[in-house]
Amino acid sequence: DAGITQSPRHKVTETGTPVTLRCHQTENHRYMYWYRQDPGHGLRLIHYSYGVKDTDKGEVSDGYSVSRSKTEDFLLTLESATSSQTSVYFCAISESVRGGQPQHFGDGTRLSIL
Amino acid sequence: TQLLEQSPQFLSIQEGENLTVYCNSSSVFSSLQWYRQEPGEGPVLLVTVVTGGEVKKLKRLTFQFGDARKDSSLHITAAQPGDTGLYLCAGDQGAQKLVFGQGTRLTINP
C-alpha cells in the first residue's frame, strides 16, 4: 500500500471554527490532491499540488485553502467551517496522471460541522 | 452537472448473476480509470484503459473503453459477495487532474 496518512481520521467541530486536515506521504510523489466525497457526487477535487509551494484550485475550492511547504505534507484548511462542508475528505498522491498513472488514496477524514 | 455519468447508481443482485456498469460522457478522455472503494477506506485502482476500443480483463471483471474514448463499461461475470463495493470511474483529461463519476454502489447477495 502507498504510504499515505491522513489526520485526524474523525473530527467534529462547530460552525465558524477553523479546521486543518493533514495528508502525509512517504512515497516522494510530486502530485497531491484533496477531494471531498458526498453521496451522489462521487469524488470532487478541492485543490491539488504539483510541487512544493505549487498549488491550484479544483472544482469546489470555495471556503478551502491549502499549503504545501514540504514534498511529504499537504494541508487542507477550512477557514471558517460551515455545515455544507460536512463530508468525507480524501487525500491522494500520484507520480503523474499522464499516461493513466493511478492516484493512490488515503483512508479519509470524516468531518462533521455542527 | 456531472461530467462523467455512471449508471446505475445502485445495483443489488444475487450471487452468480452477471452485471454491467456504465460510465458515459460527452467529453473525450486520454485515459479512463476504474476504482473500487470499500467502507472506511479510500478508492483503489482496478484498471486503466488508454486506447479507444481497448478491452482489459481482471479475473471475472471485463473493462472496455469506447472507440471514441468518451465512455467505458465494467462487466462482472458470476458476481460474488466479495465484489460488493462502490465502483468509481475517473477520466483523465490530460490536465494532471481526474474527474470522477458519482459512483455505482454494488451489493451482491449470497
Folded structure, characterized:
The complex is a heterodimer of chains A (114) and B (110). Chain A is mostly beta strands. Chain A contains no helices and eleven strands. In chain A, the strands form two sheets. In chain A, strands 2, 4, 5, 6, 9, 10 and 11 form a seven-stranded mixed β-sheet that branches. In chain A, strands 1-3-8-7 form a four-stranded antiparallel β-sheet, with no helix packed on it. The model of chain A has no long low-confidence stretch (mean pLDDT 93). Chain B is mostly beta strands and 110 residues long. In chain B, the strands form two sheets. In chain B, strands 2, 4, 5, 9, 10 and 11 form a six-stranded mixed β-sheet that branches. In chain B, strands 1-3-8-7-6 form a five-stranded antiparallel β-sheet, with no helix packed on it. In chain B, a hairpin with a 5-residue loop joins β9 and β10. The radius of gyration of chain B is 13 Å and the shape is globular. Chain B starts with a strand and ends with a strand. At the A-B interface, β4, β5 and β10 of A face β4, β5, β9 and β10 of B.
Task: Give a brief description.
The complex is a heterodimer of chains A (114) and B (110). Chain A has 114 residues and is mainly beta. Chain A has strands spanning 4-7, 10-13, 19-25, 31-38, 42-51, 54-57, 64-70, 73-78, 87-94, 104-105, 109-113.
List the helices and strands of chain A in order: EEEEEEEEEEE
Mean pLDDT of chain A: 93
Q: What kind of assembly state do the chains in view correspond to?
A: heterodimer
Name the helicity range of chain A: under 10%
Distance between the termini of chain A: 34 Å
The N- and C-terminal alpha carbons of chain B lie at a distance of 36 Å
Helix content of chain B: under 10%
Question: Radius of gyration of chain B from the CA trace?
Answer: 13 Å
| DSSP E strands of chain B, number | 11
Query: Which percent range describes the beta-strand content of chain A?
Result: over 45%
Mean pLDDT of chain B: 93
* Main beta sheet strand tally, sense and closure of chain B: 6 strands, mixed
Low-confidence stretches of chain A: none
By secondary-structure content and strand pairing, the structural class of chain A works out as: mainly beta
User: How are helices and strands ordered from N to C of chain B?
Assistant: EEEEEEEEEEE
> What composes the largest sheet of chain A?
7 strands, mixed
Secondary structure class of chain B reads: mainly beta
Determine the number of helices of chain B (DSSP H or I, runs of at least 4 residues): 0
